[in-house]
DNA sequence: GCGACAG
DNA sequence: ATCTTGTCGC
């Protein structure tokens, strides 16, 4: 699929923040988004200890069967130091490369990280959404910012994630008595719709099948 | 001033 | 992200 070029590339954290602020206005935060996407792509990156070598993996699943439709993996290097809030710049180049090698265009992007639940409202999920023009959402394993009341212990329970007086995401329990995940909007999708898809993609485990598949593909490629 | 801080 | 063994429980 086609993906918008990502230069200029930042040389400093300050420049990276400027890029986020410049792209943020391009976000489409209207509408509920795709109610019944046929396919969803999971994106994940695995790192090699010690070096800056990494593997960016993308696995497209059929939303109805949750079975893989296509895979793409690219070995690359971390393109930026790890800085909370600028995390996307580490993996963006390699993830984009993996997306471009896809022969099909997924209906939804499920990213491992936050979208709007970000200090400048422009996390990885937002960035990938703007670059691809596709609906995107973020499902993060850990909290970055915002306050919330612990959701009930049953699968499907959720609580709003609030920051600066705004709802930037939702803490969602995908399995009974299991640590919740942090869902936030990326691009061209609403929070309710995003949570619905996150839940549908997680029938048996805490994390969505999309990211589970991408994770396995990524670390498998890192060894080969 | 002291923590917290996506992966 | 990754380093790491056994262990509790269905």
TrEMBL record:
Q: At which positions is Mg(2+) bound?
A: 44, 112
Keyword check for Nuclease: yes
Quote one Gene Ontology molecular function term.
single-stranded RNA binding
Pfam families from the UniProt entry: Endonuclease_5
Enzyme class, spelled out: hydrolase
**Where in or outside the cell?**
Cytoplasm
For this UniProt record, give its keywords in alphabetical order, as a comma-separated list: Cytoplasm, DNA damage, DNA repair, Endonuclease, Hydrolase, Magnesium, Metal-binding, Nuclease
The record's annotation in CDD domains points to: Endonuclease_V (cd06559)
Which E.C. number(s) belong to this protein?
Answer: 3.1.21.7
Q: Which GO terms describe its biological process?
A: DNA repair
Listed GO cellular component terms? cytoplasm
Q: Which cofactor does it need?
A: Mg(2+)
Q: Which InterPro entries match?
A: Endonuclease-V (IPR007581)
Q: Which reaction does it catalyse?
A: Endonucleolytic cleavage at apurinic or apyrimidinic sites to products with a 5'-phosphate
Report the superkingdom from the record: Bacteria
- Site-annotated residues for Interaction with target DNA: 82
Fetch the PANTHER family from UniProt.
ENDONUCLEASE V (PTHR28511:SF1)
What does it do?
DNA repair enzyme involved in the repair of deaminated bases. Selectively cleaves double-stranded DNA at the second phosphodiester bond 3' to a deoxyinosine leaving behind the intact lesion on the nicked DNA.
Which family is this protein grouped under? Answer: Belongs to the endonuclease V family.
Name of this chain's protein: Endonuclease V
Species for this entry = Thermomonospora echinospora
